[in-house]
Amino acid sequence: MEAVEELASTFVDDALISIELEDGGRFTVQRATLCQSSEYFRKALRGDFQEASNNKLKIPGCTSESFRLILYWICNSNLPDWTTALKQNKMDAHSRQLCLAKLWLTSDMLLMVRLQNETMRKLRSITNIYTISHEAMSCAFDSAPHDSPILQVLLQDASRDFFSATGTYTSEEMDAFGSIPGFLQAFIEIGERLKINNHYHMKVPVSRDEDSKFEVKPAAKNN
């Protein structure tokens, strides 16, 4: 009951927080709702920071699209299932990969581990069907360390696509990948680490790691 009382008390004399995002988007959300969702918000809105007193919070690196999905997650404890809607539509699938890559990175910043892991599962459900978007790959290289799960997933699946079938990527797509700083070296390294078989002089990855390998482990009470 103590935990129940503690939760309920945060909604007494609650305030509305004005959220300002990187792309100019603005949302108004209950402070208690935000604080229940992650340690990041609890520290920002219940500590000695300026945001706690003026009821305004700027979230750097977070787009309106990402924040809409964060609100959906807070309210539903899940993310939409895009797999069926994206069937046979490579362009939309690539756009959704970029969206999910950004959401994963934002969730990492906001210490929302459960959302981060669910985002990874949704991303992999798409990359299991479609080739990797170079926009998503570029986003990951720009914002994540090279040992980051998001980067390892995209590199692994791109390697699988490249070595397992001919004509998977167009020459324009390969040029776009090659223009990403650090991509070629990382692509070669992950290809060497994957389990491979020799088949007609081609190296073909024969396994795809389970989603659990790329889960982020919570350091404390995170959502």
TrEMBL record:
InterPro entries associated with the record: BTB/POZ_dom, SKP1/BTB/POZ_sf
Gene3D superfamilies cross-referenced by the UniProt entry: Potassium Channel Kv1.1, Chain A
Source domain of life: Eukaryota
Pfam families: BTB
SUPFAM superfamilies: POZ domain (SSF54695)
Residue ranges of domain BTB in the record: 13-74
Protein name per Swiss-Prot or TrEMBL: BTB domain-containing protein
Higher taxonomy: Eukaryota, Fungi, Dikarya, Ascomycota, Pezizomycotina
